[in-house]
Every structure is written in C-alpha cells, then in structure tokens.
Amino acid sequence: MRPANVVTSVADVLAGIAISGYFLLHQSDLQLLPIILLCISTVGLYSGGIILNDVFDAELDAKERPERPIPSGLISKQAATIFGGICFFIGIFAAGLYSTEAQYLAVAIMVSCLIYDKFLKHSAIFGPVNMGLCRGLNLLLGISIAPASILMWWYLAVIPIIYIAAITMISRGEVHGGSKKTLYFAVGLYALVIGSVVYFAFANNNLPLSLAFLALFAFMIFRPLSRAIQNPVGPNIGKAVKAGVIALILLNAAWASAFGVWQVALIIIILLPLSMWLSKAFAVT
C-alpha cells in the first residue's frame, strides 16, 4: 500500500478542499463528515492503484526487485488483486456517500490508475503524464467538496500532473541509473511548479507564509536531486524520488496557504513527520 505515500494523497485532498473555499465559507458551521469521506476515498484509491501496480509488475519485480511482497512470497498475487479491488471499492463508495461529482472523479482516478498500471507505465511520454493525471484528479477530488469550484479551478490539476510526471521520469533510473539530461529537465519542471504556486499566492495576497512552505519544499526536493545529477546511480535517484513523493505534503501546504487557509496548511504539515516515519518502515518507490 506504500503507507507513507498514502499520507501524501490525503494532503492532496486537504489542499483541494482549501482551494475550493470550503473552509473559508464554513468557518462557523464546518462539517467534518465530507472532509473525512473524501480523505477515506483518496486512501482507498491510492492504495488500490499502488497494490495493482505491484500485481501487474510481479514478473518484472521478480527479476529487478525480488524483495517486494509479491515476488518474495509474503503475499500471493491473487490475494493482492483482491485487496486492491477492495481498496478501490472503498474509495469509490466513500466518495459516492458525499456527492455524485466526487464519485465520478473517484472512478476517473481508478481508471487512470489501471491504465497506467497495465498499459502506459513503460511509455516514456504517456506514462509520466498518466501518473501525473492520477494526482491531478486527486486534487480535484478535494476541490469537489464544493462542486461549483470544479469548473472554477479544474486547470490547477495541471500543476500536480507536471510535478508527478517529473518524479515519474526520474524514477525510471532507480534500478539501472539515469541520465543527467532527464534530471536537468526535472529541475525545470520543479521550478515551473514552484513558480505556479508563487503566482497564486501573490494574486491572493498570501505570499509570505506560502514562500516559507515553498522554501522547505525546494530544499527537500533539490538537495537529493542535485546529488543524483552529480552521480546518477540508482540509489541516488531512488532518494531523489522518495524525497519528491514525500515533499508533496509541503507543496500541498503551500497550496492551502496560497489560498488563505493557513490553519489547514499547518494541519497538512503535521502529516510530514508521519509520512517520513512511515517511509522508514515501508517502501516509497
């Protein structure tokens, strides 16, 4: 399930809810149930996607990563498939308990995950874009808490698509090493993502705190990436990928701050040590 990664998906949804204006509109009568349902939904959807990813990769992992749960024999392929299906069901069902819009997005996330896992993972171009689409839709899942906000902010899904596409490109060098050209391209995409958040923070007059979160975000992603650029071997690239995934929490905190909900930004930040702690016990990539 990659528990450390699942925590970052919850941060996506919380950032989406902040972007939607839900917290600002319901300060005096905040309903927690919709927030809880969407968080349960993203946990189920992300877990299902990750589990089925390992199911489809079982034969390849037996050669390249035999320590993983399925090739090592810790869990059977059939059991993992059933477990992944249950997680997908939970994700779609929880979203449907809140709204039709959220359920449609949940189904779209599941379909995107399966397309990536089965068909596009090894595509140099469409694979990273498809993986990024899963995260973009996840942000929209949070925004769907206020259905009218989907039409207003749908294009923001492009930002996580760009970011995750960059991480996915980098991750292709985890086993056999990567190319510096790819890593430098990722630097450019990371900078584009940071610049986008700065733009919205400035437009909403919420720049100072957002810059603080973005500074931490930049430090967390660029430090291991610079080491990978200097020596693009598998272990260094793996650390850059791991940092990029967990740093999503800081990026989401910056989003919440950029849209004026600093309290939620602080709640999201609390997820960071939890994700880092889980990353020590469970694989991230």
From TrEMBL:
CDD domains: PT_UbiA_1. Keywords: Cell membrane, Membrane, Transferase, Transmembrane, Transmembrane helix. Gene3D superfamilies: UbiA prenyltransferase (1.10.357.140). It is a multi-pass membrane protein. GO terms for cellular component: membrane. It is found in: Membrane. One of its GO terms (molecular function) is transferase activity, transferring alkyl or aryl (other than methyl) groups. The chain crosses the membrane at residues 7-25, 31-53, 74-96, 102-119, 152-170, 182-202, 208-225, 237-255, 261-279. PANTHER family: CHLOROPHYLL SYNTHASE, CHLOROPHYLL SYNTHASE, CHLOROPLASTIC. This is Polyprenyltransferase. It comes from Pedobacter psychroterrae.
